[in-house]
Specification:
Elements: E1 21-25, H1 27-47, H2 57-62, H3 76-94, H4 97-113, H5 122-125, H6 140-158, H7 162-178, H8 193-205, H9 208-220, H10 259-276, H11 279-295, E2 306-310, E3 316-320, H12 336-353, H13 356-370, E4 388-389, H14 413-422, H15 425-428, E5 429-432, E6 435-438, E7 443-449, E8 455-462, E9 469-476, E10 482-488, E11 496-499, E12 502-503, E13 512-518, E14 525-529, E15 534-539, E16 549-554, E17 557-564, H16 569-574, E18 585-590, E19 597-605, H17 607-616, E20 634-636, E21 649-656, E22 666-669, E23 672-673
Parallel strand pairs: 6-10
Antiparallel strand pairs: 1-7, 2-3, 4-22, 5-6, 7-8, 8-9, 9-14, 10-13, 11-12, 11-14, 15-16, 15-20, 16-17, 16-23, 17-21, 17-22, 18-19, 19-21
Helix pairs in contact: 1-3, 1-14, 3-4, 3-6, 3-14, 6-7, 6-8, 7-9, 8-9, 8-10, 9-10, 10-11, 10-12, 12-13
The structure holds zinc ion (ZN).
Length: about 675
């Protein structure tokens, strides 16, 4: 059996097994623990709560164990499977027998719920008014896709075949229906979790027909575009940009449409590429990545600008990418599932290429637009993740809420967060014939094998992202020389590397992997220092909503200004908060604040202070730019040499964006107006 992409032929790196990485201390160890202790039980309780949109009980009803009608959304089953996947990911590390027992119980129910021919989508099975493959929005492929992915995770974590057998039966059924490519079902695929699921099932079972079926689904998308006579608003019928099926993937040039279905499609296509090496697929993924990352993404890694709107080709879309540079802050939709989908896709692009820019996107999502979805106590969640908040809940749609909730009208996001944090160890490392690649920093222990089966083990000690010093100790060394490849994030200027206390000449270029190649011995210590300067960031001038505004970052963490209403927030907000472009901040760690965060203390200006400051510095010319906007959507602001403010100073404390909305209703912004 394979771990993810462990033997995929068209990759630069191979993944590691989830059980190979154990978080031991610091940020991700705390989040993993929060996931195990709080998120899993909270998600379980919500899935059992009659008020929630997603409902475990449907599986029991379909299994004949409860008498009732179907409850909840059409995609409820898929989100229940994501919770089981989260449990499997935690179990892979902890071997907690209670989780194993719980998974066994639900898998037994799921097996009973499955139709004799392998079909399993309880929203259809329990509703006599609905027929199989009748409507796109019935989400049957989404439900069965998550079933398969969850079952593969369970197989890897436990070695048991119980869930995998259910998944194979479902996949065999799908093969029977879709392998003949029935034209009537060409638009049937809405949220294509089944593409990556089928590639995964191929990796776990070695059965090539599952890989072939993934290819069929990818080819099917875009094969029957909507015609003018059918109208432009066909969001729920398929054939348009809403579902990436106006233009076939291999011909696509832009990131368009629903941002969850889009990122899931690209994940599936990247997985397929890893197995087939088809150049047209890679060329399309590369074009789409440039569109998404360089023109259509938020500084938080959020990937979804529009709650509703139009694609640039004129189709009605919702929960969708915007046009180039259309990145509003207050109405930024940034559905949690889409942001995480963006990270999942970039993790795959990273494995294919070994290019650090994909790891940068993945990390940006993780520390910002993925974590913002969950409360500091791990129990409540956000669906939309806007970059500014003005106190108006429920606008422009019901998914914009001022605080996180326990149950919701669409509960797809919480189990998405849980399964991602639980499975994050896989994203921390890669291996290749060269050696070990370190993608994510965090206290952990790695024990894995290089592709030639040489065992290798190391430990990471660090308080990243609050501190940029990382100490890696080799605890088991391969017999032959090999490389340790350390990711230098694009923001990390002047990073330094030492081996056993001596500075090494390895290039530590930002946005690349620094390579230290040697014959390693047990006890060798590598020290990486990533300087964590506070950076004022500016957006590409075409991003209208960010003009004359800056975002503040330290390392990978995006900060925000939050004014809690209970702490006189509205008065402070209304007096104006402006940043001089030469603003200085002091980082201060507070273990007890917002779950343990580093805050940035500094001085802003009120409206009155801004007016005076702008007057006194009028006419100071802009600095000569050395870095242009090629291949960048956001960059560090180069401040002009300005006279210091003389009046209207305001002490402010910025908090990590991900930690906002943990102090009751508040006002918040990531992009703070400049004092100009
Ligand atoms: Zn979601």
């Amino acid at each position: 059996m394979d771990c993810h992409a462990a033997s995929s032929p068209h990759v630069k790196l191979r993944g590691v097994e989830l059980a190979d990485v154990k978080w031991t201390e610091g940020f991700w160890a705390e989040k993993f623990d929060l996931c195990r202790r709080e998120m899993l039980p909270s998600v379980e309780a919500a899935l059992l709560d009659a008020r929630n949109s997603e409902q475990l009980i449907n599986l029991k009803i379909a299994a004949g164990l409860e008498q009732d009608g179907y409850r909840g959304t059409d995609w409820s089953d898929g989100d229940c499977y994501k919770w089981i996947e989260a449990m499997a990911n935690v179990y892979a590390i902890t071997k907690d027998t209670e989780l194993d027992r719980k998974m066994d119980g639900w898998i037994g129910i799921i097996a009973k719920a499955q139709a004799p021919d392998g079909y399993l989508s309880t929203n259809i099975q329990l509703d006599p008014k609905k027929k199989r493959w009748e409507k796109v929005q019935h989400h049957a492929l989404y439900n069965m896709g998550h079933l398969i992915t969850s079952a593969c995770a369970h197989k890897r974590a436990t070695g048991k075949n119980s869930f995998l057998n259910v998944a194979r039966k479902a996949a065999d059924y799908l093969h029977g229906v879709f392998a003949p490519r029935p034209p009537a079902l060409a638009r049937m695929d809405f949220n294509p979790s089944q593409m990556m699921a089928l590639v995964d099932l191929y990796r776990v079972t070695g059965e090539r027909k599952y890989l072939a079926l993934a290819d069929i689904f990818i080819t099917m998308r875009g094969s029957a575009p909507a015609t003018v006579e059918e109208g432009r608003d066909r969001r729920h019928i398929g054939g348009t940009d809403q579902t990436q099926d106006r233009v076939p993937l291999r011909k696509e040039t832009q990131a368009v449409g629903h941002a969850v279905t889009a990122t899931y499609l690209w994940c599936g296509a990247a997985d397929l590429y890893m197995e087939t090496g088809e150049r047209a697929l890679w060329a399309a993924l590369d074009r789409i990545w440039r569109s998404a990352a360089l023109r259509r993404s938020y500084i938080t890694g959020g990937a979804c600008a529009q709650p509703t709107g139009q694609s640039t080709r004129g189709d009605e879309v919702h929960e969708a990418f915007g046009a180039d540079y259309q990145l509003p802050n207050r109405t930024a939709y940034n559905e949690t599932c889409a942001n995480i989908g963006n990270a999942m896709w970039n993790w795959r692009m990273l494995q294919i290429t070994g290019d650090a820019r994909y790891a940068d996107v993945m990390e940006t999502v993780l520390y910002n637009s993925a974590l913002s979805a969950v409360s500091a106590d791990g129990r409540n969640f956000f669906y939309a993740n806007p970059l500014a908040w003005d106190g108006r809940s429920g606008w422009p749609t019901k998914h914009y809420t001022e605080t996180r909730w326990f149950v919701h009208t669409c509960y797809c996001c919480p189990p998405q967060v849980a399964r991602t944090i639980a499975g994050l160890g896989r994203w921390a490392y890669g291996v290749s014939p060269e050696g070990v690649w370190v993608h994510l920093y965090g206290g952990n222990a790695l024990r894995t094998k290089l592709p030639d089966a040489s065992p290798v083990a190391l430990t990471q000690e660090t308080n990243y992202p609050w501190d940029g010093r990382v100490r890696i100790t080799v605890t088991q060394a391969p017999a032959r020389p090999c490389a340790l490849k350390l990711r230098i994030p694009a923001w990390a200027e002047r990073a330094t590397l030492k081996v056993n206390g001596k500075t090494v000449a390895a290039s530590a270029r930002p946005g690349a992997y620094a390579t230290v190649r040697r014959h390693w011995s047990v006890g060798d210590v590598v020290e990486l220092d990533l300087p964590l300067e506070v950076r004022l960031m500016e957006a590409h001038p075409s991003v209208e909503d960010c003009r004359h505004r800056v975002a503040v970052m330290r390392g990978p963490v995006v900060y925000c200004f939050e004014a809690p209403k209970e702490q006189d927030g509205e008065r402070i907000w209304n007096a104006g908060v402006f940043l001089p472009e030469n603003a200085q901040f002091r980082a201060r760690h507070d273990k007890t604040f917002l779950g343990g965060v580093t805050v940035l203390a500094g001085e802003a200006l009120t409206s009155e202070g801004r007016d005076r400051f702008a007057r006194e510095n009028a006419g100071v010319p802009a600095p000569q730019r050395t870095v242009g906007w090629t291949n960048a959507l956001y960059r560090k602001l180069t401040p002009r040499p300005l006279k210091p403010p003389t009046t209207g100073a305001l002490d402010i404390t910025l908090i990590p964006y991900f930690a906002w909305a943990n102090r009751g209703p508040s006002l918040m912004e990531v992009w703070i107006p400049l004092a100009r």
